[in-house]
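Let us walk through a complete example step by step. Step one is to write down the protein sequence. Step two is to encode the small molecule, pyridoxal-5'-phosphate, as a SMILES string so that its atoms and bonds are unambiguous. Step three, shown after the inputs, is the structure prediction itself.
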Amino acid sequence: MTASPATESPLHYLEDAIAQLKRDGLYRTLRVLEGEQLPRARFDGREVINLSSNNYLGLTTHPKLKEAAVQAVRSLGVGPGSVRTIAGTMALHLELERRIAAFKKTEAAVVFQSGFAANAGTVSSLLGKGDLIISDELNHASIIDGARLSRAEIRVFPHRDVTGLARVLDETKDVKRRLVITDGVFSMDGDIAPLPQIAALARSQGAIMMIDDAHASGVLGRAGRGTVDHYDLHGQVDVQVGTLSKAMGVLGGYVCGSKSLIEYLYHRARPFLFSTSHPPAVAAACLAAIDVLEQEPERIERLWSNTKRFKEGLQRLRFDTGSSETPITPIIVGEAELAMRFSDQLFARGVFAQGIGYPTVAKGKARLRTIVTATHSQEDLDRALSILGEVGRELGVIP
Ligand SMILES: *Cc1c(COP(=O)(O)O)cnc(C)c1O
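Step three: the predicted structure of the complex.
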């Protein structure tokens, strides 16, 4: 008996897509973390040296953040009960926004549920039909989605290519409103945007300058203030996005800038208007994270000394670490299938370094993505390097 069209699920094409992922070596099961997000952690029943989290400073388990969250639950409950614009703005939310603005040295800030929501909500509400968004080709997916939602035109410039950006700006002088946008630190390559040149170009052409500092928050600049502080460009970037989900150890995204920018986003950014705000525990833990950044600068120092030690080790082993300048250190191997096999064999020997392939990175640029943290010990890093060397040689990734 043949199945009639009516009995075949309309979602049948998903099975074909999944089969294709398997053929391409891109099919993944989710690794399950059992316990806390630590430099040595248990995933899928195995203790591994964890090179895959964004927990740069070890704040996911910091006692001060935990205590702040617990206290907030005790005194304020577990949920805010509404979106920000109706009944869901708590004093803690406003306190966090004031703290972030002061930390970033801007007039004001608004917090979103995530960095993704911050980017998508901001780009889509600042620009509209007839406007132009000029975006680095390796910018984060949330910027791309925000750009598409805005219905503005999108022009992409080659990665970190200031000349390419200048060309696009020259060709589009007649467009009334233009936004130049770049990641501060690129999430898959760990390189830093040439922000002084990009911001100067945007300014000279009257374009809005926006940066997504998800991977620079808590990592670059004084006390982790980000790329703008790193280059000392305060006042020259109109819109700064950051995340509370990575080095800050909790969850959330924010936008910093002028008071009018933030007031506008309060009225127009759709995730702010139509999605419930953070639980009090999240806001309280984020406030404690800013305290820790200011009070424990040694964490950032250790992050960078660990980064240097680990990078030098990888380079001694002759791995291709691309153009990374930050704790995000790719080990580029080429084919996705090889990256996944490399990752699996490392895991079996006690090192967790996630394999990344298309569409997260370009075809032929598949890689392991590693991030060391401030909380890795020297023994952790040396052991990880020795296992990376062994497996890398076995698979012919290095000589
Ligand atoms: C992770 C990331 C985001 C999203 O941040 P979340 O808080 O995890 O939603 C945005 N931009 C970049 C560049 C990122 O790496």
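Step four is interpretation. Residues 114-116, 119, 140, 142, 183, 187, 212, 214-215, 243, 245, 253 surround pyridoxal-5'-phosphate (CB under 6 Å).
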